[in-house]
Write a structure and sequence with these properties.
407 residues, Rossmann fold, 2 domains, nine-stranded antiparallel β-sheet, 20 strands
């Protein structure tokens, strides 16, 4: 069944009549539903451009029936007193459902590795479960949410439970603090950001030198959009139309690129249990010299063998370079172990950035930040070391990447 804009009021009314999200009858009604927008979003546009943002905002107005205003549209009404007194801030009716949130949150803190007693920023804290878990782990928590009722709930529960949490009202786009944080968490809320790349850059300024930005419980997929956009599944459509929430999602490649624009290196960990999903860990991109082992461990790549002091291209590979904010040039140290030249080409999309026969030994290739945005593709001649060097290595390989230096 296809949903169109004119169907949305009836869709929400029927969903509510059947008990709403999570009710078996409503879930059965939603099975097979698919929203087809009237607005056409040109996916060939630069996903970071204002033209693309404007098209997604037009789609939001179509789906929600209102203007974009997160201060008013993101408000949730609830019985504050009941949740202050409850065993957990959600007052969750399902122990296993609550345990799923706990698994995601404890995994996020484990991968974020904040030191005990360090400052922890919980952006879009909502009910405050994430803040309470962080405080229980021994962190000093600053919690931020746009909804004043959530702020009251978090502060009053912290007082009742004697937890090191201070909540304040604030927005993604205007938050400022004199403090620097060892970890900044977005749990099930980063997808409400209209321009996530700007939010990441703003948050990066609030990190300690070795601090991390961690996303958990976020929708990462490319079901509907090559880069990013409003999600079109029944639950998202329901929330957008009924509440006016901005329910976006992003592809892995786009999210990595968004972190890079903010001068951050993103490592994306996908749990084998789909319900736990992705955890994204962003660290400030290292300035200066980066060796191959660090590149292989921290940067997104494919078609490379990471071993010892080198990354070895198998003939057709790709690499995403996270530029530090203050760097404008990346100097790539390529090495040819063959006794004769190896053809190599580096491209970004359809644009060829470097094409040359690399002589034996080391060759340095400089790429600007403007050139190296997004995924770089590496193509080279394939050779078998044992055939030419007699060393027993029967792999089919191409060039080697030794290091990258940011200038």
């Amino acid at each position: 069944m296809i949903l169109r804009t004119v169907d949305l009021p009836q869709f929400v009314a029927e969903s509510d009549r059947l008990g709403g999200p999570g009710n078996a009858a409503c879930d059965q009604y939603w099975a097979g539903l698919e929203y087809h927008p009237d607005i056409v979003v040109d996916q060939s546009l630069d996903p970071f451009s204002e033209d693309y943002v404007d098209r997604q905002l037009a789609l939001y107005r179509e789906m929600s029936g209102r203007d974009f205003d997160q201060c008013s549209n993101e408000h949730t009404s609830f019985d504050v007193g009941n949740h202050i007194a409850a065993i957990n801030p959600y007052d969750h009716g399902s122990p296993s459902g609550l345990a799923l949130h706990m698994e995601r949150l404890t995994r996020a803190i484990r991968l974020g590795v904040p030191p005990r007693g360090s400052r922890f920023l919980d952006m879009g804290c909502g009910w405050g479960l994430s803040s309470e878990v962080a405080a229980y782990c021994g962190l000093s928590v600053t919690a931020v949410d746009v909804n004043p009722d959530f702020v009251e709930l978090v502060n009053r529960r912290a007082e009742r439970l004697n937890l090191d949490i201070k909540a304040q009202q604030g927005e993604f786009d205007t938050f400022e603090s004199v403090d620097r944080f060892a970890m900044i968490l977005f749990y099930e809320c980063f997808h409400h950001a209209l321009r996530p790349w700007d939010l990441l850059a703003r948050m990066a300024r609030h990190l300690e030198p070795d601090g991390r930005i961690v996303l958990a419980g976020e929708p990462i997929n490319s079901h509907w959009w090559k880069n990013w956009g409003l999600r079109l599944d029944p639950l998202s459509v329901y929330c957008i139309h009924k509440f006016g929430w901005f329910e976006s999602g992003w592809s892995v490649d786009f999210l990595v690129a968004a972190f890079q624009r903010a001068g951050l290196t993103a490592v994306i960990s996908n749990h084998p249990e789909g319900e736990i999903g992705f955890t994204v860990i962003g660290t400030k991109s290292k300035v200066g010299h980066i060796d191959a082992s660090e590149i292989g461990a921290l940067w997104q790549h494919g078609g490379w063998i990471v071993e010892g002091d080198y990354m070895t291209c198998t003939g057709d590979g790709w690499l995403s370079i996270p530029f530090p904010a203050e760097s404008r040039v990346a100097s790539l140290g390529l090495r040819n172990f063959r006794s004769s030249p190896v053809y190599a080409r580096i491209s970004s999309g359809e644009i060829v950035l470097f094409e040359q026969n690399l002589p034996p030994g080391r060759t340095t290739v400089e790429l600007s930040a403007a050139q190296a945005q997004g995924r770089l593709n590496f193509i080279g001649d394939i050779w078998v070391p044992d055939d030419e060097l007699g060393n027993g290595d029967r792999r089919h390989i191409s060039l080697h990447l030794e290091d990258v230096t940011f200038l």
